[in-house]
Amino acid sequence: MYSLGTLPSFVKEEKLLNAIGENIIFADENYDIVWLNSSAVNLLKKVISLFDVDSVEDIIGISMDHFHKEPAYQRELMDPLTTSHKARINIKDTYITDIVINPIKDNDEVKGYVVMLMDVTTKAQEEERKENLIKELSVPVMDIWEKTVAVPLVGTFSNKRIDFVILKLLNVCKEKDTDYLLLDVSGVTELIEKTGSQLEKMITALNTMGTEVIIVGISPKLAIHLKNYSFNAKFISSTKEATKYIMAVQDKENRTEKVLEENF
After folding, report:
1. What are the residue boundaries of the STAS domain, all occurrences included (predicted)?
2. Which of 188-202, 215-229, 247-261 has the largest mean confidence?
3. Cβ atoms within 10 Å, residue 157
4. Lowest CB count within 10 Å: 57, 113, 150, 193, which one?
5. What are the DSSP E strand ranges found in the chain?
6. Domains of the chain by residue range
7. pLDDT confidence of 263, banded at 50, 70, 90?
8. Which positions ≥6 away from 200 have C-beta within 8 Å?
9. Is 227 helix (H, G, I), strand (E, B) or coil?
10. Do residues 50 and 94 touch, judged by C-beta distance below 8 A?
11. What's the pTM value of the predicted model, to 2 decimals?
12. Mean pLDDT of the chain, nearest integer
């Protein structure tokens, strides 16, 4: 690997490593810690006492083994390491972080290691994030009328989520022989560039199954975002009005069927 260009003369290595904004630790070939950047110092000040070390200044010279429950297992990972190693770790049941370890080589000989602690969160924050993700991935489906289901979408409308939602809704509509799907988007909290095309993809798939899609809860922000799309769906202001519409259509269809039966 090689870099490109020339660093400005005023950019020193230590200044650069401090400016990155990630927690960076250097260890020598024996796994002894030799340097921490300012972000790592500030992070370790919060947790260093959990490792029976008096102050963050005392960490210099300490082996990385000291910070692992199973040092022997950690060395089994590190000794043959030739490329980047990444894992999600728990720091004393207090912080959760991604750890990235890269060997530093000189003439193919490992001279030390760069350790980066990234996306550091408290355990409580991590649990909250997981809970929010579960909520977003959960798609409650409610039977509200004959052959009619309602689905509230909540959270971020991402690429991964849309595929999950489409698959679930297609299966539900097939199982329930659904004629109408009421899609409530009032809970969509974040829009991405492809939100419009994702909604179009979902509606097209449902139409193919013979299900009419009715969308309620469009916010002004979402309306502006979707103005250039042509959806084969009906937009109604509220769930109450959408339900009235469905009931009226089904009542008309039932009366038409009754007339046809009487004529034949």
Report:
1. 146-235
2. 215-229
3. 23
4. 193
5. 23-28, 33-36, 85-91, 95-106, 109-122, 142-145, 148-156, 180-190, 212-216, 234-235
6. 13-121, 138-263
7. low
8. 229, 231
9. coil
10. yes
11. 0.50
12. 83
Give the length of the chain: 264
- Output the six-digit token pair for 79: 């000794």
Residue labelled with tokens 């309602």: 150
Round to whole Å and give the CA distance between 228 and 193.
13
In the prediction, which pLDDT does 61 show? 95
- Rounded percentage of the chain residues whose pLDDT exceeds 90: 23
* 13-121, CATH topology level: Beta-Lactamase (3.30.450)
Q: Quick check: 213 and 207 in contact, CB under 8 A? A: yes
Question: Is-contact 103 82, C-beta < 8 A?
Answer: yes
First to last CA, the chain: 81
Cα 199 to Cα 135, 185, 230, distances in angstroms: 19, 10, 10
**CATH numeric code, 138-263:** 3.30.750.24
Judge residue 150's burial from the number of C-beta atoms within 10 Å of its C-beta, 0-12 exposed, 13-18 middle, 19 or more buried: buried
CA distance 131 to 238: 28
CA distance 169 to 106: 56
List the one residue out of 263, 187, 197 whose CA is nearest residue 225: 197
- CA 256, 184, 130, 99 dihedral sign is positive
**222, amino acid identity:** L
Judged against a pLDDT cut of 60, whether residue 260 lies above it is answered with no
What tens digit of pLDDT does each residue of 58-73 get? 999 999 999 888 888 8
Mean pLDDT of 146-166: 78
| Token pair recorded at residue 161 | 């989520």
Identify which of 131, 133, 128, 210 has the alpha carbon closest to the alpha carbon of residue 169. Answer: 210
What is the pLDDT averaged over residues 177-205? 81
